# Entry
Amino acid sequence: MGVGTRVVRRLPARRADWRLMGRTARLVLGGPGYALLALLTAFAGLSLFVLSLNTALAGFALAGDLALGARLRVLVGLYPFVGSAYGPLQGTLLVLVSLLLGVDVSMATYHFREHRVTVEASGASALGVLLATLGAGCAACGVPILLGVLSLLGIPSAALLLPFDGLEFAALAAVVLVLSIHWLADGMRGGEIRGCPVDL
Amino acid sequence: MESRRAFLAAGAGGLAALAGCTALGGGDGGGEGDGRGGGSDDGTGAASPTGTSTGTPGALGGHPAAAGIDDQPTLGPAPTEATATIVAFEDPSCTLCRRFERNTFPTLRADYVEPGDLSFVYRCYPVVYPWGEPAVQALESTFAASESAFWALKDHYYAEQDAFGTENVFERTGTFLAEETEVDAASVVEDARNGRHDAAVQADIEAARAAEAGGQTPIFYLFRDGAFRTKVQGPQGADVFAAALEL
# Structure
């Protein structure tokens, strides 16, 4: 079996793979503790993404000479759909990545506590977080940086279309997080979550 | 198993290659500048070919983003007299700058600039698409001829951004200036082609680099009562600017 074939077999290419991911995630998040963990992680991830874009401003809002109301207005205004820094597509993508991160961390935590988590799944989760952070950070700098990187690869900038205004990394992060969730679900196949069989 | 490891290794390699993305945004812009920037050679407030400043030395606490600030396109009160000042570094080809111009700038202008509470200074920082470089040459040449034409051309670039490319910047700029402004369009475009006001462009770029703007646009430096407050990256909403400046 070639490497390419083996890679394809590890991707969620079948409908049953997606159903397994959905069922596993639903069973894990059915536990209030894991649901809370997912929400907190998603919020923390989103905060990391948006605040990393504006470290100077976030630092000023937290520690600068500002009234409490002004601090809150600055900080809240940095988030998608509240402020205007992100368009609907970018905002949706960032929130989606944050939610995927929450689900992924929750599932990894469950898997780690109940079974022995695989290195590949945890590695993919970490890669997803890094890519998501890069993606959010690149909402501002992504276009020039991406153009620079791609020009090094011989791709002329005039021919480029960057539909997410530099959030292409975030889109990549979403893919990595989905893969991580898939591998986690696959790793839990055959087991039980709160008494329910994981297998469909 | 091996395939997954190979995938992760490839991802890690990609991350290493792209790590400069976050590294470029460093610094708080709080360094000291030399107070030099574009200067006026004709009394219109335009930058001089030598790039020397006729502005207030050490304006706004001597912050590098404010170097030569008296000679920059400004809306509202003079930066040295305003309660609050925003020094914006933008690229006409930057889509995020367009979002700022569409979503945020009109509110800032109506609510704070026009009542006289805020001074808004525009500086050119062409770092995104290649057509931004000839565009800022055209902007500076237009500014040397007429400040109102400069603001009109700036708005035009963002309004019609998708139509511009390196091959048609000067042609479309000339057409717009001839049809919509009072300046001598042919002369302005000729100046832009010849880089007659390149010193003003370079003064802006130098100010951005000295202020550690990195490779990003839009980026804004906020001042209140003559003192630097903070740096804002990206097309944040008007409320963020107003709150940070306590307007």
Summary: The radius of gyration of chain A is 19 Å. The mean pLDDT of chain A is 75.
